[in-house]
């Protein structure tokens, strides 16, 4: 992979929240890349820092207590962390777009769909008002809305959840972004509609040639969509690799536990496997040792004293676990087999 293929490079990102005068990190030392035209899925349970990480990229952190403390976010080779609000407004919606779990919260309830669609194009392009409306209608058609000419005059509440998500996708792709960030885009939808929306994202990703960073806790979605997978736990990347190796050769005990909690059709299950315990809250994050140790079936005493680093086990496959830390003495390496 050459440097020219890299679209987004997140390097040692630390995003913290000020709570009672102390900074607590929801994202701690996160590094990964998204290459041009690829789909990278970010997985992990609720509270692992997936949303905070994507809001950091978009400069949409809550201003009153959230901030990037350290690290870089290179977009097309340029660090976007130091950019001003105005400079970020130019990038957001044009080069990087985002769709959220609940489109109703992202759409303005008192403005028509057409008005909101037109606004995106008017903000980022120089085409005339008539052209803008034509383009809005054609974008709505592109996302599978056949009554586009009528829909532009309707308000968000007049549409179903699936239709609203289609509108959000149309708005997100209006300016042909290089990167679409989709944060749990189907969680609020019925199962059949979920499949249609994922299919639509995949189809548009291929048509437009954009990269997609898809945040999900659903490994079925990952299997369907991902080229590469980044597994997050408690604000850190614990494993990343191409999708096949995540499913067929997972290394980190957390990844294995996530995979173990997927119900399989061929197995008669009495009790659904779940991962025991919960993701620690920001205030209860262990300062040293592995953050997963308390829930890890493979934990050893050293896991509570040695803080693991993310290291490559083979090219393109990185794991944050002392079982796979090749820089450690040989006796540890034996545990791997
Ligand atoms: N504004 C905030 N102030 C303080 N803590 C916050 C804030 N927003 C998020 N957090 C905390 O940051 C951590 C990571 O949250 P985040 O929403 O990124 O998790 P997530 O993996 O996206 O989960 P979900 O799938 O539920 O969205 C959590 O412990 C959360 O409580």
Automatic annotation (TrEMBL):
It is a peripheral membrane protein. It comes from Evansella caseinilytica. GO terms for cellular component: plasma membrane. InterPro entries: AAA+_ATPase, ABC_Ni/Peptide_Import, ABC_transporter-like_ATP-bd, ABC_transporter-like_CS, Oligopep_ABC_C, P-loop_NTPase. The lineage of its organism: Bacteria, Bacillati, Bacillota, Bacilli, Bacillales. This is Peptide/nickel transport system ATP-binding protein. Residues 8-259 form the ABC transporter domain. PANTHER family: DIPEPTIDE TRANSPORT ATP-BINDING PROTEIN DPPD, OLIGOPEPTIDE TRANSPORT ATP-BINDING PROTEIN APPD. GO terms for biological process: peptide transport.
């Amino acid at each position: 992979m050459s440097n020219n293929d890299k679209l987004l490079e997140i390097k040692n990102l630390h995003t913290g929240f000020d709570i009672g005068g102390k900074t607590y990190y929801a994202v701690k030392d996160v590094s990964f890349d998204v290459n041009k035209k690829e789909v990278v899925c970010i997985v992990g349970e609720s509270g692992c820092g997936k949303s905070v990480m994507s809001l950091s990229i978009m400069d949409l952190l809550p201003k009153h207590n959230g901030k990037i403390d350290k690290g870089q976010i290179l977009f097309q080779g340029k660090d976007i962390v130091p950019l001003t609000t105005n400079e970020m407004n130019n990038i957001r919606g044009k080069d990087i777009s985002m769709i959220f779990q609940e489109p109703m919260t992202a759409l303005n309830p008192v403005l028509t769909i057409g008005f909101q669609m037109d606004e995106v194009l008017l903000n980022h392009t120089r085409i005339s008002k008539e052209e803008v409306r034509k383009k809005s209608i054609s974008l709505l058609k592109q996302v599978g809305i056949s009554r586009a000419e009528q829909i532009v005059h309707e308000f968000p509440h007049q549409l179903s959840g699936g239709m609203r998500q289609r509108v959000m996708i149309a708005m997100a792709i209006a300016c042909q972004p290089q990167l679409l960030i989709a944060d749990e885009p189907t969680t609020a939808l019925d199962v059949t509609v979920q499949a249609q929306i994922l299919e639509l994202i995949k189809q548009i990703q291929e048509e437009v040639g954009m990269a997609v960073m898809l945040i999900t806790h659903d490994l079925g979605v990952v299997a369907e969509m991902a080229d590469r997978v980044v597994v997050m736990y408690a604000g850190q990347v614990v494993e990343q690799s191409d999708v096949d190796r995540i499913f067929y050769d997972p290394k980190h005990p957390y990844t294995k536990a996530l995979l173990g909690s997927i119900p399989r059709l061929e197995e008669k299950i009495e009790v659904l496997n779940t991962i025991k315990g919960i993701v620690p809250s920001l205030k209860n994050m262990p300062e040293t040792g592995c953050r997963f140790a308390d829930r890890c079936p493979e934990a050893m005493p050293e896991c509570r004293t040695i803080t693991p680093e993310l290291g490559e086990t083979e090219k393109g496959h990185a794991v944050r676990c002392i079982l796979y830390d090749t820089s450690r003495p040989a006796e540890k390496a034996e545990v791997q087999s």
